[in-house]
DNA sequence: CGTGTGACGCGGG
DNA sequence: CCCCGCGCCACAC
């Protein structure tokens, strides 16, 4: 496994229960703010094998990128099971549920 | 080494 | 705010 891939996996494992993190933020914390798409690739390749909490990764809009019938409902179900709420538009309040390493500094 | 991938992010209309 | 188009980048082949 490549170093960056390992870092991404590490970051995803750090996302706490009841919180979410955007693909871009995961990439940023892993060392490459421009490698958001890489996070997608890592989830595809190692999400299941590494038992990653893939459902805690959402897009920067606070919505789920997965489509209905293709994982959307499972992700939403898992997030709601952690107490995360969706509004009528299917969006998550990132100011309330978003997680970032920077929060540990203040 | 070149080409394709992919659950993205941002800017403009 | 929503929708569309383009750029982005590590990895697999």
Beta-strand residue fraction: under 5%
Overall geometry comes to globular
Number of strands: 2
Low-confidence stretches are none
Succession of helices and strands? HEHHEHH
Count of DSSP H/I helices: 5
Which strand order do you get reading across the main beta sheet? 1-2
The assembly state of the depicted protein chains is single chain
Features:
mainly alpha, 42% helix, 5 helices, single chain, 106 residues, DNA-binding
Descriptive overview:
The structure is a single chain. The protein has 106 residues and is mainly alpha-helical. 42% of the residues lie in helices and 4% in strands. It has five helices and two strands. It has helices at residues 3-14, 23-30, 36-46, 72-80, 94-97; strands at 21-22, 57-58. The chain has a two-stranded parallel sheet. Helix 1 (3-14) crosses helix 2 and helix 2 packs across helix 3. The radius of gyration is 13 Å and the shape is globular.
């Amino acid at each position: 496994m490549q170093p960056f891939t390992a870092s991404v996996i590490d970051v995803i494992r750090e996302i706490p229960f009841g919180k979410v993190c955007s693909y871009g933020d995961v990439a940023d914390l892993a060392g490459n703010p421009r490698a958001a798409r890489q996070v997608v690739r890592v989830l595809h390749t190692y999400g299941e094998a590494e038992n990653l909490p893939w459902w805690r990764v959402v897009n920067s809009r606070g919505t789920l990128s997965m489509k209905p019938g293709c994982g959307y409902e499972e992700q939403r179900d898992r997030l709601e099971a952690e107490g995360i709420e969706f509004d009528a538009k299917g969006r998550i309040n990132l100011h309330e549920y978003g997680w970032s390493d920077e929060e540990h500094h203040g």
